Queue: 2 jobs
Job 1
Amino acid sequence: MQYIRVFLQFVFLCAPFVLVSASHAQDVEKLYKDHCAVCHNPYRLGAMGPALLPENLKRLRKKAAIDVITNGRIATQMPAFKDKLGKQEIESLVEFVYTPLKQTPVWGMDEIRASHIIHNKESDLSDKPVFEVNDLLNMFLVVELGDHHVTLLDGDKLEPIHRFKSRFALHGGPKYSPDGRFVYFASRDGWISKYDIYNLKLVAEIRAGINTRNQAVSADGRYVMVANYLPHSLVLLDARDMRPIKYYEVKDGSGKTSRVSAVYTAPPRNTFVAALKDIPELWEISYEDNPPIGFDGWVHDYNPDSGENVKPEPFPVRRITVKDYLDDFFFDQEYVSLIGASREAKGQVVDMDLGRVIVPDLELPGMPHLGSGITFDYKGRTVLATPNLKKGDVSVIDMETWKTIKRIETLGPGFFMRSHKNTPYAWVDVFFGPNKDAMHVIDKRTLEIVKTLRPAPGKTAAHVEFTRDGKYALLSIWDPDGALIIYDAATLKEVKRLPMNKPSGKYNVYNKTRYAEGTSH
Ligand code: DHE
């Protein structure tokens, strides 16, 4: 009896709070419906504006989100709400959009197909560039995150050719077609855009996911593969017009699904390779017209006893069991060894020919940012070097013995490392902490830091890429009032500064399409 009385008292005392919070929930849903749904989709999946889900907002602190709603976002369609909404309403909207959805949204083949846009038919576009440059392969694309634009740069004259609007929040390296004429961009919201550099026009777009990690273009230029966090899928597109070809629900034998950490193309193998974040497997997907025997997927359809030559299923998957979930990976230049890092900050090496882990405990102390590793020759041996997101050092690992030969101490954790075969130097940034304005230059011959540049004191200096010949290094000042700074890669002297709006990555057509040593692939 006593318990019942206490329980009833509890219910009585709590009732107003329950009512308040229920009506609060309705209020905030109404606020969202009235003010946000038209641009961000009634289910927060994104439309003209980005998706408003915790998975998509990881990069935006709640304080910054409050500021965006209050004051709007410069150079976007996002208006200021400070005259329409009170402080508390804005704060509750922020809490709302950082709350996970009750049900996982569906984004399957039907939704993907329905999002497909053809902007310009490729057959209507000329194959002659509408501008003049000496070397079409020495052009760069620079992603400017500040106002979601991309600048096309002449790598000989080191001058901009054109600037165009991108989707909201591009992430990861854009990927070129093998001839360098087309480029494919991925936004965090899942939009994949094909752009014709010669005609300075969009060709086609499609939304392949709700929260996308990255995309890869096949070495033959025929396909694009998209890796998603939400839903748990890989999506294969026809590179000509971005039409979807195949949807892979990413799951293991027991039906457990997984986010995809990243996908890359492995040119000599004619495959895409994807790392999974929630299942200890790597997936290799063949895009050869005649997929090789031994690949899972079509092997089941083939019955050697029947004597029939059953046509293999296209784009089959080969699953390789790994020791731990992989958050990132990169390849050696031959695309046989895959070096992966897990969330426990442990590395492993997978021999892709053997299809198994050959080094289970590679020393990778502070988790590298994906695609940040570079390989180069050090005293006749191939080494890999990578900065770490959690530690101020660069690990240098011998790729024969897989032992760490040096840890180069830096002024803080770094995001990106770059070099070029024609330069003795590797550049690594210090992305976090009080020294975020520093850029270290390491001599690849001695593995020592020979210079630390501070091109814009107080502003983040990050991400370097080289011209085709390796003579110039281009560096970003990662700030709305930022710049692209061009250095003579031999003397380390500044050559010129081009103002830009939070420039992030820059991508040289030659280095990327040739999968050059020292750059991201
Ligand atoms: Fe990146 C590349 C993952 C945070 C800027 N980043 C990549 C790639 C992956 C990845 C998988 C390779 C894709 C490719 O090129 O095909 N990034 C991750 C993360 O897991 C992490 C740590 C957390 C996250 O939010 O996803 C992360 N990345 C960031 C940033 O905060 C950066 C600095 C700013 C931003 O754009 O959000 C950032 N990532 C970049 C850039 C590249 C990149 C500029 C391409 C580098 C290149 O030279 O190729």
Job 2
Amino acid sequence: MARRPVIIDTDCGIDDAQAIMMALAAPDIRVLGVTCVFGNTSVENVCQNVLRVLDVCERQEIPVFRGSGGPLVGARVATTDHFGTDGLGDVFKDRDPLWEQKVQKEHAVSALIRLATENQQQARPPCVSLVALGPLTNLALAVRLDPGFPQKLKDLFIMGGNMEGKGNVTLCAEFNFVMDAESAYVVLEDFLCRTYLATWEFACRNALTWDFFNELVSQNAPAAVFMRTVTSRCRAYSQEASRSQRDVHFGPGFVSYDAYAMAACIDGGVVTGSIECPVRVELQGAMTRGMVALDRSGELKKSHSVVVLTGCDAEKLRRLLVDAVRQPRR
Ligand code: BDR
Ligand code: CA
């Protein structure tokens, strides 16, 4: 069976690592490359985190590209909370002195365009899926450099934004979108390929249990040990946060945000419900900057819609997460 080509754009924190491992473990997925963007940490740390994940999974042949170090407008806001300052829980003391040599010379934005173009020349209709797990800066730059870029993709899966006006960073906005609201706006306006949005509320409403998580990371496979290690310092914080802040709306639970977008890409059967409608990212509001507005009455007169995920098959998601930490050797 021919494997489906996928590009992953990531700000590699802990949940990104989990999502990347999911893709690496999926038998019918071929990861063409991983493009890095700032977000959970600096883009330099993101590159190193991705290289680390590929090492653990023995997939060093997959090219890693450095991308945008900050948003289109304004300076990068440094974040230090749940994933630590380095994005992987601040548990590793060692640094690979050769990491820069292991990152491709080509910029992430040009790699996105090249990989999609090459694959489109070989296959019609286009067959490359793009999974975006961080701020959308690389994607926005790609569509500005090559307006035909979205048409070279089969589809786009985004973790980010919201569908009920609830935010995790500001009152109304989700992290990936608020970190670069202009890019989120550009992508949701200009990407005319089929686009799936796994929002913050969608992930929270489909939380798994902490018992499941504890079992997941108690295995001895290298990927499980890695997940256990990177969550060792922040697990208590995450569990407490899920009890206090998040459960105002959703109740406590284990939520691997980026895994939801990746799972939808790997197995469409994970999605059990969705709303298809035009959307727009708010850029102006003092309280709502970065928020996604769902246009269910056609007010915006937009010609294209986005698939906003609402329902998730928890059993299928759990199975993908389990497969991810078992990582078959290739
Ligand atoms: C998103 O923000 C990041 O911290 C996570 O990696 C995820 O992509 C959740 O809001
Ligand atoms: Ca992420």
